[in-house]
Design a protein that fits this description.
Elements lengths: L8 H13 L4 H9 L9 H35 L6 H22 L9
Helix pairs in contact: 1-2, 3-4
Length: about 120
C-alpha cells in the first residue's frame, strides 16, 4: 500500500529531523508515530526492544532451570550436592534481578518503596 502526504517544507524538515533522531526512515517514522499508544505510549520499535530484552531473560531462566533440574537429579541419584549449585543459584539470582529491573522499567508502579 502506498500513502502520499503533502506538507510544507518547514514541517517536512521537522519530520525528517525527528525521523533521523529516531534512526528511522521518514515513512517508518510516520507509521510508528501514528501507531503509538495514546498518552505517550511506546512505538513499535520500543515494543520490539523490550520484547527482545524479556526474551533474553526468559532464555536465561530456562537454561538455569534445566541446569538446576540436572543437579537435582544427580543429587538424588548420588546423595551428594554438586559444587556448581552455588554458581547456578547466583546466576539465577542475577537473572531474576535483571528481570525485575526490566519489569520495573516497563511499569514503575511495580517498584517497592525503600524503607
Amino acid at each position: 500500500m502506498r500513502i502520499n502526504v503533502r506538507t510544507t517544507e518547514k514541517v517536512y524538515a521537522r519530520l525528517a529531523m525527528a525521523a533521523a533522531t529516531a534512526r528511522l526512515s521518514l515513512p517508518r517514522y510516520l507509521v510508528e508515530s501514528a501507531l503509538r499508544e495514546p498518552a505517550g505510549g511506546w512505538s513499535l520499535r520500543e515494543q520490539r526492544w523490550w520484547v527482545e530484552r524479556l526474551d533474553a531473560v526468559e532464555t536465561r531462566l530456562i537454561k538455569v532451570g534445566t541446569n538446576l533440574n540436572q543437579m537435582a537429579a544427580a543429587t538424588n541419584a548420588t546423595g551428594e550436592l554438586s559444587g556448581a549449585l552455588g554458581v547456578a543459584l547466583r546466576y539465577l539470582e542475577a537473572t531474576l534481578d535483571r528481570h525485575r529491573e526490566l519489569l520495573d522499567a516497563i511499569d514503575p508502579s511495580r517498584q517497592q518503596p525503600t524503607l
